């Protein structure tokens, strides 16, 4: 049975079971490349830049969803042709006792708001926590690293994004106008 509200929504929608795509809408298929039918029963892992990103984001998302039943973030995803892009993901669990068992997720391409810069998984973690307003010491505690190591990661991020100071970096990471 067809659901036109789902099928023609102006945002990418997927129904997931245990992080496997059961169905997606036209916008999702267009955003990631290909036809809707090509995504049926596809592990979501295939659309992440790396297995490490899939595991790390999944672990963080599962923890939040166990508490709230809902999760949202901005992350880099991979299209089927291999191109990386910034994506806003939002998910709602339909099975709160087992959040990843069944849920509805939306995906929006936000790459026009921010450019993709090749980052290591650790640099992405530091960047995301920095955007949340955490100090180098707080980021270090969160990631189990020294604050000096965090400062070194931040210095590389400043260089990669062409930012002079931390607020400018955060603005660039957030896609805000400078």
UniProtKB/TrEMBL annotation:
Pfam family, one: GerE
GO terms, molecular function: DNA binding
GO biological process: regulation of DNA-templated transcription
Domain of life: Bacteria
Family matches, as PROSITE patterns: HTH_LUXR_1 (PS00622), HTH_LUXR_2 (PS50043)
Keywords: DNA-binding, Transcription, Transcription regulation
Gene3D superfamilies on file: PAS domain, Winged helix-like DNA-binding domain superfamily/Winged helix DNA-binding domain
Database matches in InterPro entries: PAS, PAS-like_dom_sf, Sig_transdc_resp-reg_C-effctor, Tscrpt_reg_LuxR_C, WH-like_DNA-bd_sf
Residues annotated as domain HTH luxR-type: 112-177
NCBIfam families in UniProt: sensory_box (TIGR00229)
The protein's name: PAS domain S-box protein
